[in-house]
Design goal:
Rossmann fold; six-stranded parallel β-sheet; single chain; 13 strands; alpha/beta; 2 domains; three-stranded antiparallel β-sheet; formyl-coa transferase, domain 3
Length: 406
């Protein structure tokens, strides 16, 4: 018997009853589909025989990698060898019965394998169809591959992340893929809402390039007004070394600068006319930062955080992820839950804002192996046992090669 609280939780999810066909790979498209699953949608993940290539990025645990676990939670995996005769018809039959289709093929590939928008729309005019790509479906770069690192460089994101020598640097996680998944989820969600009022289906084109520009909207506007090297918004905000680590100091109001000077016991920095307001502090940032650095190096991070907060200014220790997970506020607010998984061990899974964390027995907490739900998916989408046996025999649909987790 299922847990009543889990059942009630599932019943309240916004996308309960919706079906999603996820033919994307990597992180951006799959993570969008994962978010739909966490809000209650039934997500069918189409995979090639070897599995989504994201399963092999980084250290592998059976069928899983950290990337795959982050992007596939709550889905049902179906392996179809699209090179086999009849495979395209099987995939199309399932996709046609779904509310949302997500693909991340190069432009034109989905059409060639029978999963293009026009072909699916013909039998399902209310279909929400999402294409995720590097540069979009149109334009001179449409055929170019666009990875997270490539788009960090292309979008000017690296130019805003320079070290002390002025060298542009990559942000150390898949930030472009992640933010693209969020914009994609937003686009799908609003299209589904519009459909409720009779808007019908829609094709959505979400690219890593455009998502990055939207994410950097403030910097785009700044550049048009001030050029590529605008003044700092909140000098002397930055990362400073203490006696035992690093802290981040920032400010958004003049009272924060006054509080910082008080915490540092440097009233002269508050009275100095060179630092009288945000614009002047930006003009004189190097000298001001040097003074602050000298003071902060004299004590440890914990003491500085306490003094700065007490003075009404803003600061935080620069945590590692392990330190964040152990922080008492994160623990108290259940910012992450811990799950024990076969093949993998104990992992932390962050809570997703706005949606309840899956409890035991909730499908949203399931991490599918390659093809582990394929046969049951076929049954649910109208294939009888004779058809399923024939597809197995022809190796169109493959049996699972690994284990699900959770």
């Amino acid at each position: 018997m299922s847990d009543p609280s889990t059942t009630a939780q599932s019943e309240s999810l916004a996308f309960k009853g919706l079906r999603v066909f996820d033919a994307s790979q990597g992180l951006a498209g799959p993570q969008c589909a994962m978010l739909l699953a966490q809000h209650g949608a039934e997500v069918i993940k189409l995979e090639p025989p070897e599995g989504d290539w994201g399963r092999g990025v980084g250290k592998r645990y059976g069928d899983h990698s950290a990337l795959a676990m982050a992007s596939n939670r709550g889905k049902r995996s179906l392996v179809i060898d699209m090179k086999k005769p009849g495979a395209q018809q099987v995939a199309a039959k399932i996709a046609q019965q779904c509310d949302v289709v997500i693909e991340s093929f190069r432009p034109g590939v989905a059409d060639r394998i029978g999963l293009g928008y026009e072909a699916l729309r013909a039998s399902n005019p209310n279909l929400i169809y999402l294409s995720v790509s590097g540069y979009g479906q149109q334009g001179p770069y449409a055929e170019r591959p666009g990875t997270d690192t490539v788009i960090q460089a292309f979008s000017a994101m690296m130019a805003f992340n320079r070290d002390s020598q002025g060298q542009p640097n990559k942000i150390g996680f898949l930030v472009v893929d992640t933010l693209t998944s969020l914009y994609a989820f937003q686009a799908v969600s609003t299209a589904l809402y519009a459909r409720l009022s009779g808007a019908g289906g829609k094709r959505l084109d979400v690219s890593l390039m455009q998502a990055s520009a939207a994410f950097l909207g403030l910097k785009v506007i700044e550049a048009t007004l001030e050029g590529d090297h605008p003044k700092a918004l909140n000098a002397p905000a930055g990362v400073y070394q203490t006696r035992d680590g690093y802290i981040s100091v920032t400010l958004s109001k003049e009272i924060h600068y006054a509080g910082l000077c008080k915490a540092l016991n440097r009233p002269d920095l508050l009275d100095d006319p060179r630092y009288a307001n945000f614009e002047l502090r930006a003009d004189n940032q190097p000298a001001l930062a040097a003074e602050i650095s000298k003071v902060l190096a004299t004590d440890n991070s914990r003491n500085w955080i306490s003094r700065i907060e007490e003075a009404g200014a803003l600061a935080s220790p620069v945590n590692t992820m392990t330190e964040w997970l152990a922080d008492p506020h994160v623990v108290a607010t259940q910012g992450a839950s811990w799950v024990d998984l076969a093949q993998v061990g104990r992992i932390a899974v962050p809570a997703i804002p706005g949606v309840p964390t899956p409890q035991a027995g909730d499908r949203r907490g399931h991490f599918p192996g390659v093809g582990t739900e394929g046969i049951e998916v076929l049954r649910d989408f109208g294939f009888d046992e004779q058809q399923i046996d024939a597809l197995r025999e022809a190796a169109v649909v493959l049996e699972p090669s690994g284990d699900s987790l959770g």
